[in-house]
Write a structure and sequence with these properties.
By secondary structure, this protein is of the alpha+beta class. The chain contains 3 helices and 7 strands. It is 24% helix and 26% strand. It starts with 22 loop residues before the first helix and ends in a 14-residue tail after the last helix. Bound molecules: zinc ion.
Length: 180
């Protein structure tokens, strides 16, 4: 897992071409990494690849939320076409920001155009939790992270923690690749 401070997390990612080498293996590896780190979403820049690809795994929540059984999705070259008008606030975390959890306000619905793992195009509305995860992961493709959505006071309070993190001082239960 690439951790805050790694330049790849701040790059605008590039489109994935259909002939991208070993795309299937890459997606499988990302699902495996996500399972091991017990997250719900993972974007390619978080594994060091500035490509417009992210995955979502809500199956791990299906014990409490049976509607998420088998919810494994791949988004290639996604675009958020439209945002709903309503917003909500919810505590987010990020595998690239271990130990940081903050409330983030986001629209509750999004219309997304994307290609799946077979390069088939979809245009779909997502609501509530899936909509939030998708917006969080989409941000990664734009070189953004959830801390960018915080107000100046919260940002100030996190400053020293983030500085330490970018120097490799943090704790995480999964394999990490800090900048130093
Ligand atoms: Zn994240």
């Amino acid at each position: 897992m690439y951790i805050f401070g790694q330049p790849v997390l701040r790059k605008v990612a590039e489109e994935v071409e259909e002939d991208f080498p070993q795309l299937k293996e890459l997606i499988e590896n990302m699902f495996e990494t996500l399972r091991r780190s017990e997250g719900v979403g993972l974007a390619a820049p978080q594994v060091g690849l500035a490509k417009r690809l992210f995955i979502v795994d809500l199956d791990c929540l299906s014990e409490d939320r049976p509607e998420y059984k088998g919810y494994l999705k791949t988004f290639i070259n996604p675009e958020i076409v439209e945002f709903g008008k309503e917003t909500s606030s919810y505590e987010e975390g990020c595998l690239s920001l271990p130990g940081i959890h903050e409330n983030v306000k986001r629209p509750t619905r999004v219309l997304v155009n994307y290609l799946d793992e077979n390069f088939e195009e979809h245009e779909e509305w997502f609501d509530d939790f899936p909509a939030r995860v998708i917006q969080h992961e989409y941000d990664h493709l734009e070189g953004k992270m959830f801390i960018d959505h915080l107000g100046p006071l919260r940002k100030q309070m996190l400053k020293s923690k983030l500085q330490a993190m970018s120097k490799g001082k943090f704790e995480a239960s999964y394999k990490c690749k800090p900048n130093r």
